[in-house]
Amino acid sequence: MLSEITLGQYFPGNSFVHRLDPRTKILATLIYIVAIFLADTSIAYGILVAFAGLVIGVSRLPVALVFKSLKPIWIIILITMVIHMFTAPGEKVLFSWTIFKITEEGLILGSKMALRLILLLLFSSVLTFTTSPIVLTDGIEKLLRPFKCIGVPAHELAMMMTIALRFIPTLLEETDRIMKAQTARGADFSSGNLLERAKNMLPLLVPLFVSAFRRAEELAIAMESRCYRGGEGRTRMHELAYKGIDYTAFAAVICLAFGLAAMRWGASLCAL
After folding, report:
1. Which residues pair with 95 in a beta bridge?
2. Distance of CA 32 to the CA centre of its chain
3. Whether residues 125 and 8 fall in one domain
4. Residues 118 and 164 placed together within one structural domain of the fold
5. Residue 86 domain flag
6. Where do runs of H (alpha helix) occur along 102-243?
7. pTM of the model as a whole
8. Tens of pLDDT along 67-82?
9. How would you label 39-48 residue by residue, b for 16+ Cβ within 10 Å and e otherwise?
10. Domain check: are 125 and 9 in the same one?
């Protein structure tokens, strides 16, 4: 159940994607997300799906593992699709019952929104699957460093985001363990109405928060005992440096974004 959620986990490897600089992977993910919202035709979405499939294949991650990251939000994807199906206006009605109406345009729009969410999560999952928390922290810090001149605490923000991402799998395992223990003691988390279920969650939330605070305190003590003093003057065993494969990856994702932008606005610009 909760233990099957793969969000925040890192899977070591030596693939092309694993060897990329973390800054390259973060920026490429952001550019790909922008490219997702540039797509407006079936061909454009096909290109996005093919590109995501190519990246997953090059990363040498198990396909089942990558798609397992969709489990936490499948209900959100379904709700998003249904809302657009029933609310989008259109002329060709496919189904009608009382006030509910599904049009062909609504069905297409709902499918596009669902596909956007799926592609966004799959590509983002490749980033966390192929980048260790320490390297990810360094990458985020390097990207935020130019904003230090306006008072942005680059290192602290990067450290907080990475620690939060790192402890998601740990807290999910802890939640699963507490749920099993409480169920063995007679707790019921699945029956009753919404209010009763919320009340039944109290025996789960209290020990979970206690465990989370204990882990946070242990981590703080461990970091302090190792003389951690933040990012100023901190040295690293492996300094980040762009290589040829990083420029190749940048070129690929930028070409993808410009290509989709040209497909969307190229005809209009030519007409002008």
Report:
1. 102
2. 12
3. yes
4. no
5. yes
6. 104-129, 133-144, 154-184, 194-200, 202-225
7. 0.78
8. 887 877 788 888 888 8
9. beeeebbebb
10. yes
